[in-house]
Amino acid sequence: MKIHVLPSGPIQTIGYLLTESKTGTAILIDAPGGILDKIRPLLEQEVCRLAELWLTHGHWDHMQEGDAVKRATGALVRAHEADRALIETPEIMEKFMGAKLGLQGVPVDAWVGQGDRLEALGRVFEVRHVPGHCAGNVLFYCAEAGAAFVGDALFHRGVGRWDLPGGSLAQLSHSIRSQIYTLPPATIVFPGHGSRTTVGEEMAGNPYVAATA
Ligand SMILES: [Zn+2]
After folding, report:
1. Mean per-residue pLDDT for 34-38?
2. pTM as predicted
């Protein structure tokens, strides 16, 4: 499995394209603006069909191009139902953005929840619910790859904003300790913004989670 790291859109939100040549399929995790033009040549190069789009949460910058990706590829879209309003009516976030971007809702085909096991690319991905940045943030963990795609729950030496609707630092800290710090320490954490880190590195040095433990 190859992990293509694709920062895109106005605030460099990272879309992760996972391709597997053995199965000829691919998964896209989050769909920031401009992602479609970035994944097209990669899918062609890897000879893969985009099978699914997984949204880590319903913030506009992670799903700005979700509808376009769905239309262009027919990918099955998954997300957590706690972010349903954000995903279906993203304009409710526009007042926090300072600009109108003409956001499109994304049609979700299947809602995911805590403990779900998704089979994709010949592997199993476990869904863990990590609310606190927003109500519906989930992570997708692949034990075989030693990788967790966490959205905006945890960053390298940081955590996601907790001051937006549905956010709470206490809840976020609890989510990180119970759902991320319980993964093997060597697990690579792929966040929605910035550089990758590992579970062990954040357990040792993340100032936000330690401060509220
Ligand atoms: Zn977010």
Report:
1. 98
2. 0.96
* CA 160 to centroid of ligand 1, rounded, Å: 7
Q: Residue 63 Cα, ligand 1 centroid: separation in angstroms?
A: 10
Whether the predicted pLDDT of 93 surpasses 80: no
Number of domains within the chain: 1
Sheet of 117-120, strands arranged across: 117-120, 123-129, 138-142, 147-151, 188-191, 197-198
CATH code of residue 132? 3.60.15.10
Q: At what angle do helices 35-46 and 66-73 cross, to 10 degrees?
A: 30
Q: Distance from the CA of 45 to the center of ligand 1, in angstroms?
A: 30
CA of 167 to the centre of ligand 1 (A): 10
Task: Quote the pLDDT of residue 28.
Answer: 98
The residue segments making up the domain with residue 72 are: 2-211
